[in-house]
Amino acid sequence: MSDLQENDRKTAGRFATLAFVTAGFTYALIVFGGVVRITGSGMGCGDDWPLCNGQLIPPLDFETLIEYGHRLAAALVGLLVLLVAGHAVKNRNASGIAGRGIAGLAVAALLLLIVQVLVGAITVKLELPTSTVVLHLALASTLLATLLIAGLRARGAVPSAAEPGRTPSHTRWALASAALGFVALLFGGLVANTGAAPLCQGFPLCNGQVMPEGGSLVHLHWTHRLLGYALVLLVAIAVLRTRTQVAGKAIFGSALLAAGLVVVQIAVAAAMVLLSLPPVYRALHLAVGAALWGVLVVWATVAARQPAPAPAG
Fold first, then answer.
1. Which of 63, 79, 204, 253 is 20 to 30 Å apart from 163, CA to CA?
2. d(C-alpha 16, C-alpha 88), whole Å
3. Which domain holds residue 106?
4. pLDDT of residue 242
5. Statement to judge: residues 8 and 52 lie in one domain
6. Judgement on whether residues 82 and 201 belong to the same structural domain of the protein
7. pLDDT given at position 312
8. DSSP H helical segments within the chain, as ranges?
9. For residue 277, is it left (φ>0), alpha (ψ between -120 and 50) or beta?
10. Based on the number of CB atoms within 10 Å of its own CB, is 221 exposed (0-12), middle (13-18) or buried (19 or more)?
11. Distance CA 53, CA 106 (A)
12. Residue 11 pLDDT more than 90?
């Protein structure tokens, strides 16, 4: 390996590390955002933005401390995303980065961050409407996925150029699992922010019924649960398909981790409902859900790298 190739390899490795570290902080920020909601601290800085109660460093009572801490954590993530984008653009011609869509993903992450900041400001100014709160979650989850994909591509997980119709079935199952996981995550955000969480008592049924009676919020909560049950089934099938095909250790390991997190998430959800929604379990439900989303993204990304098998004969 020449010195130039070795330098390019190290450049790609440094980018991957930076992208993964930033993804880790983004995940923590998503969970922190849930803590802000669960503790009722969303208006801890009033409707001021970017200041907090009109001050750069406000008096820190409990709610203000939580919200102000969340804003400081968001600023740190913003700085890291800016570094990711700058690193990718500066080294876009390096062999480990060029031709892999990494620079585009890094710039997309920066644009997502900018939109995320604007939505966050609007959310505060409008005093936490559900629509912008859930949009805030969707953007953060998309940012997390973008950073993970960029880091994986720098590590060599580049989608294969398989012929149309020849994508391995386990790859399609992985992609479907990630798509359903994203939808379930957003429905969870809707349930948490509309007051629908306590309206389905009991588990696994909703108020003891397969088709529960009640208004739209009951049906919203029940839909979220049905999406969770569907994800369990989908991931189980996907793991079986991955096991029966030559999918590689990284793919099968990601599939098993996703399956394990799905089981944990269902168990946490059941405990949360049966124990009347204690704050710790609500926060844990979001933490596991966001972790599951990240693993689903990793699984789908590494699965998409594998080329389709050549046709027999």
1. 253
2. 10
3. 1-158
4. 87
5. yes
6. no
7. 42
8. 3-38, 62-90, 102-125, 130-154, 169-194, 216-244, 249-274, 279-305
9. left
10. buried
11. 33
12. no
pLDDT at 114 over 80: yes
232-252 pLDDT, tens digit each: 999 999 999 888 876 678 899
Q: Whose structure tokens read 């950073």?
A: 147
Where a domain ends, among 158, 174, 194?
Answer: 158
Q: Which residue has the higher pLDDT, 66 or 49?
A: 66
Give the pair of three-digit tokens for residue 29.
Answer: 């920020």
Do residues 25 and 67 both lie within one domain?
Answer: yes
Residue finishing a domain among 115, 143, 158 = 158
Q: Coil, strand, or helix at residue 96?
A: coil
Residue 232 burial (CB count, 10 A): 14
Whether the per-residue pLDDT at 185 is higher than 80: the answer is yes
**Total domains present in the chain:** 2
Does residue 146 share a domain with residue 225? no
The pLDDT, as a whole number, for residue 166 is 63
Q: Are residues 10 and 152 in the same domain?
A: yes
Residues 141 and 175 in one domain: no
- Residue entry with tokens 């062999």: 95
Helix (H, G, I), strand (E, B) or coil at 55: strand
- Which pLDDT belongs to residue 274? 95
Query: What is the C-alpha to C-alpha distance for residues 145 and 167, in angstroms, rounded to an integer?
Result: 21
73 and 103 share one domain: yes
What CA–CA distance (Å, rounded) separates 66 from 186? 23
Handedness of CA 97, 159, 144, 259 (dihedral sign): negative
pLDDT score, position 227: 97
Whole-angstrom Cα distance, residue 174 to residue 245?
13
Are residues 241 and 254 both part of a single domain? Answer: yes
What is the share, in percent, of the chain residues with pLDDT greater than 90? 70
CA distances from 77 to 248, 268, 294 (A): 33, 28, 17
